Amino acid sequence: MLKQRLQQKLLQKLSPQQIQVIKLLEVPTMLLEQRIKKELEENPILEEGDELEERQDQEEEITEEDVSKNDDEFTIDDYLNDEDIPSYRLNANNTSKDDKHEEIPFSVGVSFHEHLENQLGLRVLTEKQYELAKYIIGNIDEDGYLRRKLTAIVDDLAFSMGIETNEDELEQLLYIIHDFDPPGAGARDLQECLLLQINAKNQTIPEVALARKIIKYHFDEFTRKHYDKIESKLNLEDDQLKYAIDEILKLNPKPGGSFQDPLNQSVQHIIPDFTLDLVDGEFQLNLNARNVPELRISREYSEMIENFSHNKNSATRQDKDAMVFVKQKIDSARWFIDAIKQRQNTLMVTMQALIEYQREFFEEGDETKLRPMILKDIAEKTGLDISTISRVANSKYIQTHFGIYSLKFFFSEGMQNDAGEEVSTKEIKKILQNCIDNEEKRKPLTDEKLMEILQQKGYPIARRTVAKYREQLGVAVARLRKEL
Length: 484
Description:
Elements: H1 16-26, H2 29-42, E1 46-48, H3 51-60, H4 112-120, H5 127-138, H6 150-161, H7 167-177, H8 190-199, H9 206-217, H10 219-223, H11 227-234, H12 238-249, H13 255-259, E2 274-279, E3 282-287, E4 295-297, H14 299-310, H15 317-357, H16 359-364, H17 375-382, H18 386-393, E5 397-400, E6 403-406, E7 414-416, E8 422-424, H19 425-437, H20 447-456, H21 463-472
Parallel strand pairs: 2-5
Antiparallel strand pairs: 1-4, 2-3, 5-6, 7-8
């Protein structure tokens, strides 16, 4: 049974302007220019402009008397004020107009797959064999591996291209591709990849022949670094095994990657959002806004509103609808300009608080000087919400005199040492990394031994915590770090 009733609720709603600020706050400098260009394309009221030119335009504006509100309840003065000057650029532009920023042209070479297809054209094949082999090459990934089953490729060829084939025919064509350069291309797993590469070497050399035997018959023991088992089964001396393993380590586990032209790779360029300089012991923080254009309200539309105010009595319904559209677009433009301004202010306030908190690190660049810091620490220091600090730290970078760092790098948990001081986990990880880098490779340090070393240095830490930090550093267990 349906019932109607009144109910009061307390809801938190965000205005369109607040939503816009939140979204812009997450955008790094690299993407901000694209976002502004998109807004310029969508809003005809918004345009790029020089701040000096904007002031001159503002001085030339004719101040209108207050007029009565029309049916849409907006006044001319609301859209003819002098607060549209974009003041969100917070760093000085020290570049000259004569400075040139030219891109250096370069020619792009052939890709890995094109290289394989070029070699395919040198083989005597029927038209059907050529199409099948080309399809196989298309399924080889950028590392050089064919990770799909031949049975699945048989089905794909039948459904998508209408070509009837079988696994044996594809296997024969795959053997041809295995003979291509770079050696190892088209392998279905790591063992086959290394075997194809070692087969291409001179087998009369003892260590090469031994390396082939290890890969083919004792690959599991090799991957687990059970060197004593290999020595026992093959009746080898330490030196013989060492030379053979050195040959294996020269092989490339990703043959496709070795051929890739660096000019063809999609490299993600990091554009720092902040630059920090240390001048005479004082920090100078600047916001990178070099490619961020200055924005203003279009003068053309301001004049349109002026003309409408003079001829208001004779305006048609169509003219009024046009003014409502202009009003909406002016509001949107002002919201966007204000959102950019708030974004820049929030970024600067947050970064200044972070620099003050981690002052010792920014002075010397020593990771052991990093203090434990969480989002809440900076939120309390700035008076901003934790979610706001999180958005600022996301995808943002700072350039210092000792390198470029992600803002997320500076946030870490903490623990107390024996002296009762709060230290960052990054400091512990740094010491852990140094211990592993300087260990004797024949007898790598176990997690138990690393725990003892850290405890001797005054860090009361458990073995399982050492294992967790080691995994976060991307370091394998002691057995897999062993070298002959």
